[in-house]
Amino acid sequence: MTILTKRIPYLQTLGLPSDVEMIRRTRAFVLRAGLTIGELAGMAALNPNSLRVFLCGSYGSHHRVDSNTLAVRAALKEIMDLYEIKSYPSVHTPHYSTDDFEAIRSSMWAALRNGTAFLVDGPPGTQKTYTFRHVAEEINRSKEGRAIYIYARIDHSPQSFLIEACTEAGIPNRGSIDQLIRKLRFFLGNQRALLIVDEAQHLGLTGLEILRQLLDTPPFFGVGLGGSHDLSVRLRDWRMEQWRSRLRRTHLLTGLKETEAAHILRAEFGVMAADDIAATIQDATVEAVRNRKPFRYISARNLFFAIQDAVEQIKARSAPREAALEGLR
Predict the structure, then answer these.
(1) Mind spelling out the 3-state secondary structure of 53-81?
(2) Are 255 and 299 a contacting pair, CB within 8 Å?
(3) What DSSP state is assigned to residue 88?
(4) Residue 146 contacts residue 165 (beta carbons within 8 Å)
């Protein structure tokens, strides 16, 4: 009796997904993780050729009855359960609702439901990325539609950008620009879909026009553009009038309000002296330039850095005391 035959009763108790479901999940996993079939086979200790045959749905016709797909499914499930890549990882930091967060959240839901576009212009630390990811996760949990977050790199070519969009959506990501656009429409066209493009100032004119095409033609994707002031300046150019006419809302972020920052600090530390609050807010205040003029704003990122530093200092001061108390016990 082979080792596999001896393991069959155990494998049958695992309640493994069917061949069809495991093939679907594995193909999506490979796309999202950027793995080759050979790399996945190595991680799962499977023969690459056997894995390819399994993913083609032809495993049973190439193997003996006692070499069924139970072992293959078990090995794949173990790897994917360990390394599964979700569309939007859960946000683990404490969430504090601000006016800017709620405004962008409202625009994201409106763009999803109505197939419209909006723009978020803000310097670093004004919670653009945090809000995009947090609300995208909320949308995806709601089952009302699908939100796909895409980070645009510097000099992101149109084809590479579309490959990234398809990858984030978990759909096949090979082909020409036209083929990739058709895939997005085909695979996402049966639901409301929102494309969120962060650092969109890195997209060239062609990339922006591809987004406008997805916005303007069925199934009418919602589109959110987030980026620096360079993006707002570009969209004011006369050649971008088509894009400007499609922006339902524009959010110009100027950082946390002092009252919001103070509320966050009190929520984290309890009662704080007014001077301590003012000093922490001052440390979190940075400078940016808008319309060639400098302005100062409270950076949410810097405020949370300051909170983390304070927590670490408190832990460091309390450690010797706790050690001394432990010694007395």
Answers:
(1) HHHCCCHHHCCCCCCCCHHHHHHHHHHHH
(2) yes
(3) S
(4) no
User: Tokens in use for 228?
Assistant: 């620096």
Which candidate, 105, 137, 133, 136, places its Cα nearest to that of 118?
A: 105
- Where do runs of H (alpha helix) occur along the chain? 3-12, 19-33, 37-44, 48-55, 70-83, 99-114, 128-142, 158-169, 177-188, 205-216, 229-235, 241-244, 258-269, 274-283, 300-328
Q: Crossing angle for the helix pair 19-33 and 70-83, nearest 10 degrees?
A: 40
- Shortest CA distance to 147 belongs to which of 208, 96, 86, 200? 86
Task: Return mean pLDDT, the chain.
Answer: 85
Summarize pLDDT for 77-109 with one digit per residue, the tens: 888 888 875 544 554 567 899 999 999 999 999
pLDDT at 299 over 50: yes
283 Cβ contact list (under 8 Å, min separation 6)? 302, 306
Q: CA 274 to CA 284: how far, in whole Å?
A: 15
Residue type, 190: N
Determine the residue type at 42.
G
Pairing of strands 247-252, 285-290: unpaired
Closest by Cα among 219, 162, 168, 160 to 191: 219
Give bridge partners of residue 256 from the DSSP assignment.
Answer: 298
- The H-or-E segment that residue 225 falls in is strand 222-227
Q: What is the DSSP string of 7-59?
A: HHHHHHTT-PPPHHHHHHHHHHHHHHHT--HHHHHHHHT--HHHHHHHHTT-G
